[in-house]
Amino acid sequence: MATRGTRSEKVKRIFQQFDLNNDAGLNRHEMAALVVAVNPRVKFSDEQISAILDEVFRTYADFIDPDKGLTYDGLLRTYDDGAGDVDRDFEALGLELKPHNNNNNNNSNNNIIVNDDANVTNNYEVEEEAETTSFGDAKVKLPEPSPVQQRTVRWAASPNHGIVFDDTWKLVDDLEVLIKRLRTKQMKDSKGKGENSDVYSDPGWSRELGPSTEMSKQIVWDESKPDYAVFVKELGGLRSRADGARSREEAFDGHMAIGRVLYDQQLFKEALVCFKRACELQPTDVRPHFRAGNCYYVVGRYNEGKDEFVLALDAAEAGGNQWAYLLPQIHVNLGISLEAEGMVISACEHYREAAILCPTHFRALKLLGSALLGVGEYKAAVKALEEAIYLKNDYADAHCDLASALHAMGNNDNAVKEFQKAIDLKPGHVDALYNLGGLYMDMGRYQRASEVYVRVLGLWPNHWRAQLNKAVSLLGAGETDEAKKSLKEALKMTSRVELHDALSHLKQLQKKKLKGNGNGEDSFMIIEPLKFKTIGEKTSSRQELATALDIRSFQRITRLFRCDVELLKKEMNETDTPLSYSGYGAPQKSIRKPALECILRRLLSFLKAETFIGAVKAINVKILSVLDESESGRVDLGMFFAVLAPICGGAPDKRKRVAF
């Protein structure tokens, strides 16, 4: 580790090298020369240089001499802040210290990033480690590569995140030849399969499907073909070359570079092998764990992805400021992985942490708002989504989810406006259109709702829920024949029992109309009053009956009737929760909501992620919000178990015993 003295001497030599007029300051011309010199692989345009200098001179205004420019102390501060790597820049400039100061350490301080452009995966936009130049606080993307650099991808030339060793460039070049050969062979046999368009899933909040700027097209690789097997075999040779490098650091560099190229080409399984090998070579480095987590998420192995992000988080927190630039992204991707498993309350914690670490991180705020919407915390969701829109006004997904939250709170007029904003920004936003149709139905505007569902089906022809809702809205508008046609179309798309029942009910209604008084009015069956019991001491009160029906409905939504009370009893005995003192009487075993969600996941382990999210939402709205009236984020664990026990499955005596 270089001493502060060595670092300051290196910075002084760099400063002296570019202080051409020896006035103890670096003016814009001299600073531009420094930026270009320490980034030899990057070809900057005049506009990019100007933007970088504007940011540096603005950020370090306290160290700017109006007549001379950036002082030595200012340049030293930029390096202390992580805006550049002293050792790398010193080496790139070919400078030397005096013999007694010679130090060959290679300590790397990665750039602080403020850019959160990301690569989209199947459901959520999983964030990538951003690429920046030295003086990366300037919010400037790297320029397009020059014709010479076009042989490889943009990230490879990035000074602090890219390739370090020359031999690694040879591996990348050879790998690109293999990928090009594989693509040529596979394209001969396939005439191009359909790519993902801007479509969104049908739950209540956006899942951010679709292409990103970097993965604009989905690449489909056929792993069953012989040419793919040949590619994998040749790729194994490249990995062996990386393992045979002269040092552990060079082998790590090789595997990370191979993994990055494979990931960019959507060869995720092969990229994962490289990142896992890089994890073995340098277990305390955050980047391979982070990238392995991304790969696991893309291929649908969410639990393993979560584990890798946890390892990345632990390594980043142990590494101090070196990995500070990556912490928000790790929290976001960990939250996304948790949400994929149905752990939405836990995901909220990580989105919130990312927003705290980087207050301008509009995606973290949007994801936080969407997750809060998913667990029924509508006021908090609105606040987070409004903040995301304040930071990025053209964020269509945030407008869509804000509209859903406003609708849930009964603010329908503003909800319509927000849905319309989302659709104006992205006309193909299926989530916004689908949810707007539901809002119109709730408002009784059935004709308008049916028109919106027609638009949804135009974008997503096999959206059976939209087809079903179109039938319902047509029925509400009095167009029975059209409703029946739409219902039959929905039935062709999915043979769900509900559709059979709905169709049968529609036929029954038509038969009743035919058997009526001839003018199309409905006929009614008259029941004798004697068949009903009169209210008395032996009958239940209306309120008790309504409560019983509510409890039964709650059991069905949460599936708690399928959870045996013995499991709950076991969880009560095994959950080790320390006593906490609230100052309001006896100590109690209080537990944070994310930890409580983990207990619920164990109790309801038989549920799929989507169903579990619905169960947690119901429990959060009906139980946790009451137990946590002060909104502290903690609940009394004993009271929670006591409430849950009576509505679990099992004999009544057992449930009573566990409750008490």
UniProtKB/TrEMBL annotation:
<dbReference type="InterPro" id="IPR011990">
    <property type="entry name" value="TPR-like_helical_dom_sf"/>
</dbReference>
<feature type="repeat" description="TPR">
    <location>
        <begin position="252"/>
        <end position="285"/>
    </location>
</feature>
<feature type="repeat" description="TPR">
    <location>
        <begin position="362"/>
        <end position="395"/>
    </location>
</feature>
<feature type="repeat" description="TPR">
    <location>
        <begin position="430"/>
        <end position="463"/>
    </location>
</feature>
<dbReference type="Pfam" id="PF13414">
    <property type="entry name" value="TPR_11"/>
</dbReference>
<feature type="region of interest" description="Disordered">
    <location>
        <begin position="186"/>
        <end position="207"/>
    </location>
</feature>
<dbReference type="InterPro" id="IPR002048">
    <property type="entry name" value="EF_hand_dom"/>
</dbReference>
<dbReference type="Pfam" id="PF14559">
    <property type="entry name" value="TPR_19"/>
</dbReference>
<dbReference type="InterPro" id="IPR019734">
    <property type="entry name" value="TPR_rpt"/>
</dbReference>
<feature type="repeat" description="TPR">
    <location>
        <begin position="396"/>
        <end position="429"/>
    </location>
</feature>
<protein>
    <submittedName>
        <fullName>EF-hand domain, tetratricopeptide-like helical domain superfamily, EF-hand domain pair</fullName>
    </submittedName>
</protein>
<dbReference type="Pfam" id="PF13181">
    <property type="entry name" value="TPR_8"/>
</dbReference>
<dbReference type="InterPro" id="IPR011992">
    <property type="entry name" value="EF-hand-dom_pair"/>
</dbReference>
<feature type="domain" description="EF-hand">
    <location>
        <begin position="6"/>
        <end position="41"/>
    </location>
</feature>
<keyword id="KW-0802">TPR repeat</keyword>
<dbReference type="GO" id="GO:0005509">
    <property type="term" value="F:calcium ion binding"/>
</dbReference>
<feature type="compositionally biased region" description="Basic and acidic residues">
    <location>
        <begin position="186"/>
        <end position="196"/>
    </location>
</feature>
